[in-house]
Design brief:
alpha+beta, two-stranded antiparallel ribbon, 3 helices, about 20% strand
């Protein structure tokens, strides 16, 4: 796999002007980031009602049905979901006649307008798979087709010097 790039970097992650002490723990959850001053404790209505759903055509990934993720757990769960897409691309690239050239993950971070908490709003996995030309096993029909083609094409393109 030449050029494999899987990054989970997010610009501005944990940068909350109200409290910039947010840290990502081992479970992929944000600790210490508070919302706007005077905002209610716990999840606000906007955060409670936020649903995540996968928009891809891959049937074996999470979030095919809309589901809720708390702002604190959003980074870990969205990144894990995007890694499922990367795993599918790796499997596709491992097939005969194909090569996974690159795979990258981009996560989108937003701030809740109601409480001010930062959360991972979604992600996008971009993959490049190089497909080689198919290898044909010659059958009697292929041999006959090649013979007919060679007779039909013979002499159509001639470079001659005089």
């Amino acid at each position: 796999m030449a050029g494999m790039n899987i990054s989970g970097s997010m610009t501005g992650y944990g940068m909350n002007p109200y409290d910039a002490t947010g840290k990502l723990n081992a479970a992929g959850q944000v600790e210490g980031v508070t919302g706007k001053p005077g905002a209610p404790e716990g999840e606000c209505q906007t955060c409670k009602n936020r649903k995540y759903v996968d928009g891809s055509n891959e049937m074996d990934v999470s979030f095919k049905a809309p589901g809720h993720i708390s702002p604190e757990a959003s980074y870990g769960k969205v990144m894990a979901h995007e890694q499922m897409h990367v795993a599918n691309a790796r499997a596709e690239g491992a097939k005969e006649g194909q090569e996974l050239v690159s795979a990258s993950v981009t996560l989108k971070v937003e701030r809740c307008p109601e409480c001010g908490r930062m959360y991972t709003a979604g992600g996008e996995t971009t993959t490049v798979i190089k497909k080689s030309k198919p290898v044909y096993n010659d059958t009697p029909y292929d041999d006959a087709r090649k013979l007919v083609d060679s007779k039909m094409l013979a002499g159509q393109k001639v470079d001659a010097e005089v």
